[in-house]
UniProtKB/TrEMBL annotation:
Amino acids binding Zn(2+): C275, C280, H282, C288
Gene Ontology molecular-function annotations: GTP binding; GTPase activity; metal ion binding; rRNA binding
Protein name: Small ribosomal subunit biogenesis GTPase RsgA
Cellular component annotations (GO), alphabetically ordered: cytoplasm
Record-listed E.C. numbers: 3.6.1.-
Lineage, uppermost ranks: Bacteria, Pseudomonadati, Myxococcota, Myxococcia, Myxococcales
Family that this chain belongs to: Belongs to the TRAFAC class YlqF/YawG GTPase family. RsgA subfamily.
Domain annotation CP-type G: ranges: 95-253
Annotated cofactor note: Binds 1 zinc ion per subunit.
Gene Ontology biological process terms from the UniProt entry: ribosomal small subunit biogenesis
Keywords assigned: Cytoplasm, GTP-binding, Hydrolase, Metal-binding, Nucleotide-binding, Ribosome biogenesis, RNA-binding, rRNA-binding, Zinc
Localization in the cell: Cytoplasm
Superkingdom, taxonomy of origin: Bacteria
Domain EngC GTPase stretches: 104-251
Length: 350
């Protein structure tokens, strides 16, 4: 059985409850999300809760990590999703203008990279930019350390890509780095694992849990089908630490906006302060401190190119979203225009 405190409940959330809600509704945290049925953990245990029709199209759609209020009956019905402290989101797969929240109320995002594949600094940069935009702290976890005899180069590459975010070395097989990892999660905090398939995320979760990962509590027969959906994300409570969210839906984060770029590339921003022109684009202008740093070997040219690419991507996303917002606005005005036309017509007739 869990306490709400172990699940990450605190004053930020309790302050959102009216006294009526506090006396009539139950508080729980979504530990697995799959469509209309949510597995919610209450102090008394896990139950499957229903998302009522009127909340289906509404924002926010409850996801793993959300704190929810439900009716006390069976099945519990979601009454309200509490305001999030943070949300990890990405562009919904294949759609340029739809934001998809992957996990809610996350404190730290653990960006996992298997050392058998090297550090992949460009991929780390892209993911870290998305993490910075989420409001959660980033950390890089280089795992499968048992497979590589010499970490030096990968570690240096990852540190350069991480721009000050902590870089941990770990192994789900040898157990190296697990204590430091649990320390990053910490009691009352929530971490989410992000990384490509096969990076070793689930192995780390199992090692942290000290057991093979399993859904807690009985699963009803009619729910079995849902367990095989590829978008199910699950929240686990670590013994003595906080919570971690793992799932196949969170592999690559596509950039949603430019909000995280400055933080993810704060070293470039610091260099740019030394450029002769304030609006220097670091594209061949005289007195460019960024180009100077690349020439002197203090800044990796690949890293600068990576920033450029991400800036272009973010600008494109934002432009597309501008188009989507304009379309939505048009639809919003349509009924009003119709009513106006009717009004004028009636007036002209009268
Ligand atoms: N030697 C070694 N192998 C590992 C380690 N971690 C994971 N592996 C292996 O790498 C493969 C992938 O590990 P998973 O933990 O399933 O990777 P994942 O990131 O959860 O993958 P998805 O669930 O597909 O996103 C498995 O064959 C693991 O046994 C490690 O620390 N050391
Ligand atoms: Zn410059």
């Amino acid at each position: 059985m869990s306490t709400l405190a172990a699940l990450g409940w605190g004053p930020y959330f309790s302050a959102q409850l009216s006294s009526e809600e506090a006396s009539t509704l139950l508080v729980g945290r979504v530990v697995a999300d799959r469509g209309r049925r949510l597995r919610v953990r209450f102090e008394a245990g896990d139950r499957l809760a229903i998302v009522p029709g009127h909340l289906l199209g509404a924002e926010p759609v409850p996801v793993a990590g959300d704190f929810v209020l439900t009716t006390p009956g069976e099945p519990p019905v979601i009454a309200r999703v509490l305001e999030r402290r943070s949300a990890l989101s990405r562009n919904a797969a294949g759609r340029a203008t739809v934001e998809q929240v992957l996990a809610a109320n996350v404190d730290v995002v653990l960006v996992v990279q298997g050392l058998d594949e090297g550090a992949h600094p460009r991929r780390l940069e892209r993911t870290l930019a998305a993490v910075h935009a989420s409001g959660a702290e980033p950390a890089v976890v280089l795992t499968k350390a048992d497979l590589v005899p010499d970490l030096g180069e990968a570690l240096a590459e990852a540190r350069a890509a991480a721009a000050g975010a902590p870089v941990l070395v770990a192994s789900g097989v040898s157990g190296e780095g697990l204590d430091a990892l649990a320390g990053l999660v910490g009691p009352g905090r929530t971490a989410v694992f992000v990384g490509p398939s096969g990076a070793g995320k689930s192995t780390l979760v199992n090692a942290l849990l000290g057991r093979a990962e399993q859904p807690v509590g009985a699963v009803r027969a009619r729910d079995v089908r849902g367990r095989h959906t590829t978008t199910a994300r699950r929240l686990f409570e670590l013994p003595g630490a906080g919570c971690v969210i793992d799932g196949p839906g969170i592999r690559e984060l596509r950039l949603w906006d430019a909000g995280g770029l400055a933080a993810a590339f704060d070293d470039v921003a610091a260099l740019a302060a030394g450029c002769r022109f304030r609006d220097c684009r670091h594209a061949g202008e005289p007195g460019c401190a960024v180009a100077g740093a690349v020439e002197a070997g203090r800044l990796d040219a690949g890293r600068l190119e990576s920033l450029r690419k991400l800036e272009r991507e973010a600008a494109l996303q934002e432009a597309r979203r501008g188009g989507a917002a304009a379309r939505a606005e048009k639809l919003r005005w349509r009924p009003i225009k119709k009513a106006q036309r009717r009004m004028y017509r009636d007036r002209d007739r009268g």
